[in-house]
Design the sequence.
């Protein structure tokens, strides 16, 4: 099995029975804030796009690059579709000219012509990707590969049970806006960033240890930030709180925990994977490339500057009545929302900075009141500040996912009172009837599901499944004193009270081993 690195989470897998192109991303994403690094735009995409199969793990725009898929990937390719709860991904592919689809039943092995086998695991929580994420398992002639990319399954047993894996490709770096955009003292940002960076690596080591593959390939990050306004987010400033460590940092950190089987794929690197080992060739020496990272970034910044400026010029739409359009788009969804609206529990404020860089219009999405209205000087727990032009553009293009656009762009600042609230972001990811109904149904189903099984962790008896996204706490749960941490997403719980310390709601059921009666579980959306 030959694996050619094509940048970020993208790769081309070649076997004698067929080729699969995965997650090709080349064009800037999220309001031209994210670019692939190392740069992959100079690869021979005319040839790389001539494949038998195409797999895109999810609809995040650093995985689903519509322009590149339209221009460079053969429309004769069969699209391998995860079993997602909505038709959005297939609809988007059809709009680009793709006509051949294989809808893979979730977690079922499918044998393709020539003996090539694939299995796709789809994750379908509203917090997974825009409306889901997925992983791809491939086997040919006894060689097995798992492309986990961004996905965070609760465990990898479904893949391990299919036989020993020889190549494990997974995310290790940040892909979020926290804590950089928060209006906090720099010391606090650094502390929170370091904590998140450490959690990212801890989660990666757990997945690697679970699968025990012969070779580990760090992929799916980090992006680079080439706009001058975002340049500080690149991990080149000696900031221990930067959440975007690169592949060379991965190798160093992996070595500290005993890892010796890591392989970096630059764009154009080729790894020949067999049951006996892997041999890799690179377009340039890996160590040399990352030693010159700053120079590579500076060269990219100058070369891509016209692209960024052209994107910025397209954002302004002064003809858009922002308040009126937000009311038209969002109020019907607020009327239909039960779980998300209750979960948010208060007004969310948007401060929109005008073209002059000074004037500000403040608009509130009032979840309890089910309306969008001008800010009335009330206290809000969540506030976002961004350019008016960005909101104009989202409304102009009828964007249904403000998370997979505005928030991932990092072109905003945020402030909040109290804990993180996942329902805020879940709602702004679901600005369509189809998405909202799915999310409401998902939360309704999980609200009704009782988790009766308990486990013992140290001196505590706790429910087996994490209240957040049902991770198995026998695998991901760590108890230190009176606190439980689920390492899958880093969520923390106070065990004596059951209270979630990371977000509102999500109370855990727990009691001491020697206690006679367990504490009540409480309501998930209290």
Sequence:
């Amino acid at each position: 099995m030959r694996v050619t690195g094509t940048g970020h989470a993208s790769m081309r897998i070649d076997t004698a029975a067929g080729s699969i192109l995965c997650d090709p991303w080349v064009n800037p994403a999220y309001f031209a804030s994210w670019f692939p690094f190392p740069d992959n735009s100079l690869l021979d995409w005319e040839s790389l796009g001539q494949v038998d199969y195409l797999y895109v793990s999810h609809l995040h725009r650093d995985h689903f690059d519509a322009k590149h898929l339209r221009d460079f990937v053969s429309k004769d390719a069969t699209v391998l579709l995860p079993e997602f709860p909505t038709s959005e991904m297939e609809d988007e592919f059809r709009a680009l000219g793709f006509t051949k689809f294989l809808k893979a039943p979730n977690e079922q092995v499918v044998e393709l012509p020539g003996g090539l086998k694939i299995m796709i695991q789809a994750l379908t929580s509203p917090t997974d990707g825009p409306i889901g994420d997925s992983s791809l398992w491939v086997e040919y002639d006894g060689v097995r590969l798992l492309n986990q990319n961004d996905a965070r399954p609760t465990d990898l047993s479904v893949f391990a049970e299919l036989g020993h894996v020889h190549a494990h490709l997974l995310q290790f770096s940040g892909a979020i806006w926290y804590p950089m955009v928060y209006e906090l003292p720099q010391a606090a940002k650094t502390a929170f960033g370091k904590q998140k960076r450490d959690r990212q690596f801890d989660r990666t080591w757990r997945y690697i240890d679970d699968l025990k593959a012969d070779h580990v390939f760090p992929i799916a990050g980090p992006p680079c930030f080439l706009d001058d306004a975002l340049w500080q987010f690149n991990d080149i400033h000696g900031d221990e709180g930067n959440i975007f460590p690169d592949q060379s940092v991965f190798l160093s950190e992996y070595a500290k925990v005993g890892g010796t089987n890591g392989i970096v794929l630059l764009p154009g690197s080729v790894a020949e994977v067999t049951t006996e080992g892997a041999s890799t060739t690179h377009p340039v020496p890996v160590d040399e490339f990352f030693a010159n990272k700053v120079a590579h970034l500076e060269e990219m910044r100058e070369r891509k500057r016209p692209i960024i400026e052209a994107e910025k010029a397209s954002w302004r739409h002064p003809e858009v009545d922002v308040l009126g359009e937000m009311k038209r788009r969002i109020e019907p969804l607020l009327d239909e929302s039960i779980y998300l609206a209750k979960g948010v529990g208060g007004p969310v404020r948007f401060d929109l900075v005008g073209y002059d860089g000074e004037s500000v219009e403040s608009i509130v999405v009032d979840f309890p009141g089910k309306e969008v209205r001008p800010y009335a000087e009330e206290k809000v727990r969540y506030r976002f500040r961004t350019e008016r032009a960005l909101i104009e553009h989202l409304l102009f293009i009828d964007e249904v996912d403000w998370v997979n656009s505005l928030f991932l762009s990092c072109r905003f600042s945020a402030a909040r009172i109290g804990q993180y609230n996942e329902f805020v972001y879940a709602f702004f990811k679901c600005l369509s009837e189809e998405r909202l109904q799915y999310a409401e149904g998902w939360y309704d189903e999980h609200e009704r599901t009782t988790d009766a099984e308990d486990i013992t962790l140290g001196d505590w008896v706790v429910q087996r499944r994490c209240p957040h996204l049902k991770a198995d706490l026998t695998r991901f749960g760590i108890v230190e004193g009176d606190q439980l941490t689920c390492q899958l997403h880093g969520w923390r719980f106070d065990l004596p009270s059951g209270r979630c310390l990371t977000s509102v709601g999500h109370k855990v059921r727990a009691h001491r081993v020697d206690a006679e009666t367990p504490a009540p579980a409480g309501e998930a959306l209290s």
